[in-house]
Every structure is written in structure tokens, then in C-alpha cells.
Amino acid sequence: MKSHPDRRLIDHLEGVKRRSLEKFRSLDLSWEELFGYDENVLEEFVSLLSESHDVGKSTIYFQKHLSGERVERSLSAHALFSAVAFFHRSKNLPDKLRIFGFEIIRRHHGDFRNFLDIEIDEKVLEKQFSAIPEDFLRRYDLHDLKLSETIERIKRSISKFSILGKKDLSDYFLIHLFMSILVSSDREDVVFKSEPLPSLPSYEKEKILSYREKLGRKNQIDSLRWKFQEEILSFKPERGKIYSITAPTGIGKTIANLLFASHLADEDTIVIYALPFINIIEQTVDKIKEIFETESPFFVLPFHHLANPAYEEPDKYEDLLMNLWHSRVVVTTFVSLLESLITFRKIPFFYKFPKAVLILDEVQAIPHEYWTPVEKTVEFLSKMGTTVLLSTATKPALLKEALEVVSNKNVYFTALNRTVLKVEKEMSFEEYKEFVRETLKDGKRTLIITNTIREAEEIYDVVEGMGKTCFLSSRVIPKHRLEIVSKINEYDLCVSTQVVEAGVDISFERVIRDIAPVDSIVQAAGRCNRHFELEKGEVIVVPVRDERKNTLFSSYVYGSFLTETSMNVLKNHKFLEESEFFMLVEDFFSYVKTYGNPDKKGIGKALENLNFKKIGEFSLIEPEPTVPFIVLVDEEAQRVFEEFAEIFSGKRSRENFSLVKSLFRELSPYIVSARIKRDLPFPHTIAGMMVIHRNVLDKWYHPVKGLRVEGSDEVIII
Length: 718
What we know:
By secondary structure, the chain is an alpha/beta fold. The strands form six sheets. Strands 5-6-4-7-8-3-9 form a seven-stranded parallel β-sheet, with helices on both faces. Strands 13-14-12-15-16-10-19 form a seven-stranded mixed β-sheet, with helices on both faces. The chain has a four-stranded mixed β-sheet with strand order 21-20-23-22, with no helix packed on it. The radius of gyration is 28 Å and the shape is globular.
């Protein structure tokens, strides 16, 4: 009797149980305080859960299905019968745990979308029960199972709990924690059998210090960076607390964040480094590789839908190790992280959080409408043992109780007084174009940041010819964007949407910024005189009105509430020194906290009520009706695409699926997304993506402005 083609069922059940118990025992949590159950009760819970999760595979129907025979799908399914078996075997557990265990096993190949749904097909279960060998039933204490009575008891229990049962936030995390233990152990056993997972390299603080030595102290700002990082080094964080590093842009927070993690990064700890945008993931991963002198995905793993880490044996375990976050450092986006934690889907890596260091870099980028569910999640993680670090130059009114690591942050804001901010009166778009043209006549190197692609493209047309000029927007393929940023110092002028606003190490004499939320303005100011190469840089903020719709361009991207709040906070300031930015940001977020809605979709309440359907509506970025375009701009893109197309249209097999995924990731530097009109003629499509072949490139891709799509709207995609 088998669970998988190369694994005996009883060996699999035993293997999953062993791995699950090892994970449970290694957590060392205050179980009773956290979840209201004694450690021994929960150990029995995880033992029964793991040992029961696949007993439904013992039916003759599943065994025939596994050997390739055609069997009615409902009869070869195994999860529901396994869940009933768990419920029968767990008589000594509290009712709530029996219900949770039933739902976890029932959904261990699905999700919690229909949590507490009591529809059960008893006739199918009866056929399955009668198709299990007697000796197997006795081995797993199922020989005395009275199926009808048990099903009736399950329905009554679920119905009662659904209507009258006491639910709270800890239940949400208990369900995810034990689902995570089960699913990760299940997947590991299938691939590795009784072998352990590959060991992880150590997190060596000395490597960071050595890297810092190589950078040296060449100027005033380097000395300040060393002072700042020494303060992080001398700080002694405790596990399970929430900390904050608030310091100016350009002071070396990435190295400081890694130094903070080094205090806690022992052999059981992983470091989770979360950033707001996917376009700065790879540069952060590259920096970590450079610092720790390693290319191994077992040390640093980029985790997002386009990540393509290089494992030595990809066919064997690439997907498994990626999905389990089996790496010392995981670098991911806020979207990927938070939509993994606040979800009705499984979280296979969730059991790693209690021992993790979680760094939320540029934390101000989390939309204020979701502060409540994010706060509830982060606070509970810290109770479970996760050490959290919020890192930012513009700390939002989120997790206000976080402990500040830097004793006197004003020292750094005062010392790095690199820019002065000027606030101009509101202008029409035509007035703004003229203002920009006149301002640039002094010849200063200038970065112009707009809110929409239309603004950026028209401003580019105005300033082109006034100096060597580059252009950046989300319509430019990632490969070209990276090339432009790598040689940004060669340009006199740069016109860009917000793609340069965070995490991009560039510096100009002057920044002109369309009005935006104050934190975005401060981030933009961080691209001005960044390395203190001048006595003072100049940041000019201009509210620009789109006269076609009589609204500020900022409202298209940030909404009217944040735009108006920013206008209100700035209205009393004509000039501001960088040393005053800190207070400006506090005023802005205080207003947002007071008058905004931090739980706009009611997700925070849904977490406490176990309303998984509602929780499933959590999405950090509002979905845009965009379409991806593959732009075959060069021979390398053409070569990868042809290989991708051939395999994609070939035989559907597991091996080919893995190859297609890998090739898709190789194509990612050539993919951009845009809104389209349905009635326009579009080029060749594959896998839901438009393909711009090289023979039509002139029509579809501008060498500077990127993708040309007639009818595309104003909203940018970062």
C-alpha cells in the first residue's frame, strides 16, 4: 500500500509524524498563554494530525488510481476521509481542536476559503470505508469507527462552533501554524524520505564587518554611517520584541539592518528581509551576496513570482525549498509577505516565524488602509517569538510602541542636513511644463519625478535637448531600467515615475517632485545630494493639476485623502530643511492615523472571527486590469522566448512545467504590463501574455519611453 509511487503509506505517515513532532518540539512556545492549550494537549493534536492526514489513501480506489487505473475521482480522493478518521481518533482532545484538525486535514491540498462548510457526501465515505483493509483499520484505531454517528457529530460540532463558538485572533494563527507544520512535513517526506534537509550556511557577522572595512571612511557621511552602525552593533535586542530604526535616507540602513539581525541569527534562525517593491529585491539580494561572499540560494533566497535562484539539483527540490523558505536569508516583497500571512491559503513556511528576525524595510510603504490587520499580525508574531525590525526614514503611525534602536535619531537627521525643500503653488500641467523648462536653464543636474506615465512622457518631450536626458517608467522593460540606473551619473537630466523613489542609490543636485504623500516626497528628497557631495541640494514640490479632469495627478495614484492630507501638512511651509523632515513626517502620519480608516475592508475583524472568505479579500495592491507584454528587444530575449514557446506548446509533463517556469523567470527582464483596450488589434499571445516580436518592435516599443499601447490609462504600475 503506497502514499506515492515510491513511498509506502505507513512509512509516509510515520515520516510526516516524526518531522511534525520535531518541528513542534523545537518551537518552545508558551503554548497555554498563546493558544489556551497545554503543551501536552497540542503535542497529541499534532501527532494525530500528521499520522491521520493521509489514511484515506488506504482505500482500494486510491491504490488503483496510483497504479494508473481509471477511478471515479470522488472515490480516489483521500482528504475528507482522512479528516473524519482524525476526528474519530481525537476523542480526548477539546472540541475546538477536533474541529480545527478536521478542517486542516480536509483542506491540506486546498485552502480555507469554505472554512466550516458542513457539506459531507456520506455515501462516498461509506464506499471508501468499506474499501480499506481490516488490518490497516486496526493499526490506526479505526476498526470501531461508526461512520454515520461520527459524521453527524462532526456536523453538529461545526454548526455549534460556527454560530456560538468563541473565536479570536489566536485561533487564526493556531490553524495556520499547525497547517504549516503538517504541509511542510508532508512535502519534505515526499522528496527527502528519511533524509534531513540540506544544512544552511551560518550567518556570519564578521562578513558584514569585513565588507564595511572595505568600504572605508572616505568622507563626512561615511564617518556618520560608521557611527550609526556602531550604535546598532552595541544594541542588544531581545527575541520576540518589535524594534524600529528611524534614520535618514543614505545613511546605510541595509548594512545596519543586517547588523541588527546578526545579534539573533543563530543556527535555528532565519532572517526575512521584506521590501516594498519587486524592482529593488534583486539589488538587495546582490548586495547580500556581495557582503556574505556567497551565491548559494541556501544562504539568500529571493522570494517572489519572478525569482530564479540557482540550485545545483533544481529538478529534485527547487520548488520545495523555495516554497518552504529553506534559506538563511529570505528577501521578499511586502505584497508577497503580507498576502502570505493574511490569507485563506496555506503558509508552508509559517512555522519558521517564531524563531525568525523579520525586517520590514521602508515600512512606510504599507498602505494606511491596512494598518490594523498588519498591526494585529505583526504583534501576534512577536508574541510567538518573532523579532521584528521596522526600518525607515519616514516612520508611519504604525506599531507606535516599537522600541527605537537608535538612542537619539535627531542627531543623524540634524547632521545629514543635505537638502532644502521648497513648496510651489499649484500649477496646471501646461504651467508646470513651462516652470520646469525655466528652472532647468541654470544647468543643474536634475531628477524630475512625476505621478503618472503621461506626465513623465510629456515632460521628457519638453526637456529633451536641454542636456543628456534619460527616462524611467514601468513601461520601460526592467532590463533597460537597470542599465539606465547603472550609468545614471552620465545623465544631466532624468525624468521618471516613482520607480526611482525607494531603494535606488542615485543622487542629483536637484529633485523636482509632483505633489505626493509626505513620505514619498521625503523618499524622493533622498535622491538629492544623497552622498553630501554638495553643501545643499534643492527639492522642489509642485502640485500639478490635470485640467482634463480638474484633479491633481497625485489623486490618480494615491487617492484624494492622502493627497489632500499632504497638501494640508505642507501648506504652512514655503521652505523646509532636511533636519525638519522628521517632524513633517510625524505630522503627516498623525493626521492619517486620526482621519484615515486603518481597516478599510474589515480584514482586522475578519482575522478575529475566522472569516476566511473575507480574509481572502486582503490585497496590498488593488488589482489592475493589466496585461503582460513580452518585448523581444534583443537576440537573448528571442532565444529564451523560442525555447519557452517550444516547451510551452509541447507535452504537458512535470519536467516541462519546471522548465517553463525557469524560462519564464529568464524572460522577466523583458516583461512589462499595461492596461489595454479590448477592441484594439494586439500581437501574438502565449500563456496569457502579448508577444512583441522583433519585426514589429518599432510599432510597439519606443527606445526611450518603452511600451506603446494605444488606449492605456494614466495609472502607473511599479
